[in-house]
Amino acid sequence: MHCPFCRHPDSRVIDSRTSDDGLAIRRRRQCPECGRRFSTTETASLTVIKRSGVVEPFSREKVVSGVRKACQGRPVTDADLALLAQQVEESVRSTGVAQLDANDIGLAILPHLRDLDEIAYLRFASVYQAFENLADFEGAIAELRTHPGAASQGSAPAGAGGRSGA
């Protein structure tokens, strides 16, 4: 790492800390030549190859935008969508691959969306799993019924005990 002050080609790391979201590392450095200190931020890059062949950085906002369409008219909040985008980013980063196809991102969204809202999951899956007819929808619905996700388990809030009101 070049010193930003004297352009010496080396520096010494004094301290390292992860950022609040855990996706970046902040390093405090000192130049052995001039003795001045400076900070750097390091992040692992994650890029997406679109169908057109264009390569662009991964974007949580694009995940939220795509999923928001599937969730239209469903009881899903912006906070739910932000959490889903974070979970998707964490799962694709955990693969260790630096470059993914856009379709792989769509497929990585599916398990998280299934847990969030089954109807939105079916809408999204119909695009990313290329449903061609009603049999494809019926197969996905049968899979949801035989292996229900978190969205269909325990719909009552914790501590409600099945009672209502006072």
Automatic annotation (TrEMBL):
Zinc finger intervals, unnamed: 3-34
Pfam families according to UniProt: ATP-cone, Zn_ribbon_NrdR
Keyword DNA-binding appears in the UniProt entry: yes
InterPro entries per UniProt: ATP-cone_dom, NrdR-like_N, RNR_NrdR-like
Cofactor: Zn(2+)
GO biological processes: negative regulation of DNA-templated transcription
Domain of life, source organism: Bacteria
Annotated GO MF terms: ATP binding; DNA binding; zinc ion binding
Keyword line: ATP-binding, DNA-binding, Metal-binding, Nucleotide-binding, Repressor, Transcription, Transcription regulation, Zinc, Zinc-finger
Cofactor annotation remark: Binds 1 zinc ion.
Keyword DNA-binding in annotation: yes
ATP-cone domain span: 46-136
HAMAP family on file: NrdR
Family to which this protein belongs: Belongs to the NrdR family.
Function: Negatively regulates transcription of bacterial ribonucleotide reductase nrd genes and operons by binding to NrdR-boxes.
Official protein name in the record: Transcriptional repressor NrdR
Organism: Leucobacter tardus
